[in-house]
Amino acid sequence: MSACRRMLYLVKHRSLLTHVRRNLTTWSPVGAAFNARPHRKLDLFQKNVGLFGVPELSCPAGFQVATEKALKNTEHLVEKAYSSSPGVQTVQCFDQLSDELCKVADLADFIKVAHPDPAFREAAEKTCIEIGTVVEKLNTNVELCKSLKNLLDNPDIVAQLDPDTRRVADLFMFDFEISGIHLDDTLRKEAVALHVKLLDLNNEFLVRSHMPNRIARSAIPEHLHLHFATEGSFIQIGGLHADSPNDLVREIAYRIYLYPNAELMGCLEELLKCRYKLATLVGYESYGHRALKGTMAKTPGYYTSLFFFSHNRDIFIIQTAKDFKMMRDMKKKLSPRHSELMPWDHPYLSGVLRAERYNIEPSLYSPYLSLGSCMEGLNNLFSQLYGVSLMSEQPRAGEVWSEDVRKLAVVHETEGLLGYIYCDFFHRQDKPHQDCHFTIRGGRQCQETGQYQLPVVVLMLSLPHPTKGAPTLLTPGMMENLFHEMGHAMHSMLGRTRYQHVTVTMSCFVLKSLIPSLGTRCATDFAEVPSILMEYFATDYRVISQFARHYETGQPLPESMVARLCESKKVCGAADTQLQIFYAVLDQIYHSKPQNRSTTEILKDMQQKFYGLPYTPNTAWQLRFSHLIGYGAKYYSYLMSRAVASMVWKQCFIEDPLNREMGERYRREMLAHGGAKEPMLMVEGMSNLFATNTDRISCLPTNICKAPFCANSLRFRHSSYPGFLPDYGVVSPLASCHI
């Protein structure tokens, strides 16, 4: 971007600077935009442009209009695919077909969980179901598959395809195969029926796994009522209260929130059975084998043996035992009468140990970490690494779903506009409490227009609003989460894939994980690498020193405080990682061959073998494991991605985290390809480490051992959704509580 244009932009947004109290320094436009409440002029004559600028979506009924338009275009593209001669144009037609459906489905997938208006959410949900049904039909359309098969079966034509086009063609064929296209009519119909049933089961489990439980107020001591929400004569518990200093509050929350629900248990059992049946029907040994095709791990057995049955497991067990001993000693000190270490103690006591040893009370850091200063830091980092700037833009009427949503244009110094990031950062009623990234529109080269379709994403956080006296102040954990999610966003922005089908489409909600043609084309165990790598930047003083300043005095965050924060992450790191290993193993076992025992019995067994803290009777943690939907058989991805991110950081950025040459190399080798290149080839291109595929994978467990643990990205986080409250009676969940 030219110096003249930058100056005009600063002049245009100079009014924002006056809204933020600052004594010694001033904010940049992007910093001011996030440190002040939005000031939007009311213009009664301004046209409603619709959500994300889609004209049809100015009202809930517009979703039906947009859906019908997309389906009409889909019919035309299907006919075009039937009639086109085999060649590059075949793949381009398939990709345009995928894009036509994704542009509506991805947007609806977000709106159905994020829009404050129930009418919009309901309309978006209907669109998701309608598009999903069409996709299932397309994935089993024999004539459509034949048009692609005619291409791939012709060696002369295949030889002329460039690598990206060949990979996309293979991915589309893979979608047909896992949907049962090769089966006879009877079995293919059975596969479709299973797909449809799984849509319903996944959605039911995802929603109900977040619902709160309740218990009679009389079952809980009156002095503890203030710690929980109340509803008439009931106490409502919508989470684990893992950070509560009161051990009895933590225990009550754990026992009630995780108390088994028979209907939800049945839903999960049926879901796992259907996944296995579908996988075997289309030719796979298990659902895990089907899910891991195309990932870095390749197969469940190879991954499991490397992580859990090598010498690294012994390292974890020894260090985890030391961590648990520290926690037990701390619990004896805090609660002499109830000193046994239990699962509900782990998150709280590990935090206490970190804070006590290194004095990292979050309130000491927050004044230096205003939201605006953190956004300035991200802007500076991206500018130095990639030549990219974040520029605040005023949304048009009807473009956003809440007035506190900010819009950022991502602009490269020579390439121009790369895409848009909508920042839905602030808490509001009925908003999911989970930090996440949504793709609204994927990037692709449009053959029909000759232009590049710019990516659009949403970042969702749940931060406190700024007040009259202060901007939004972040804890270190919130700041790292912000950097983590922005890593996903920049992966989308900096990718420049020719095909939408291999763009970065990472989302934590249901639709993408259920419909193959709308799936995450960047391998799941690679997709978290850019976001986890950003956590390393977030804790490096050379980066932090550029933006962490006291919001009132302008004083920089002392280097000693950053050093203490980094050292604190090593405390109980093995126990935290061991917990994630337990979750990953549990996920793998659930998606292997049927075990002929209940999911709770499997949980109890795996917890004993791979965690170390005792199972609590009459609890079913697996019913809150919502990652079984979007990350089914792939929860290990967090650990795998952390290992890869650790390698990249140590080899490429640890010496100079602001090195432009290395930033450009990182973009070229890892970010630009989306899912158009094998993930391990991207890692190899960046690190030049490995001679063989075995070398590539086998070093990963070691890197997990050595990588600093960040609880924010690996610790399982629960969300709370209002809704049906199952009545479990009065005292049964608390029968063994220390009340």
UniProtKB/TrEMBL annotation:
Ranges of residues in domain Peptidase M3A/M3B catalytic: 241-686
Role summary: Cleaves proteins, imported into the mitochondrion, to their mature size.
Family: Belongs to the peptidase M3 family.
CC cofactor note: Binds 1 zinc ion.
Compartment(s) of residence: Mitochondrion matrix
EC number: 3.4.24.59
GO biological process, one term: protein processing involved in protein targeting to mitochondrion
Organism: Oreochromis niloticus
Protein name (Swiss-Prot/TrEMBL): Mitochondrial intermediate peptidase
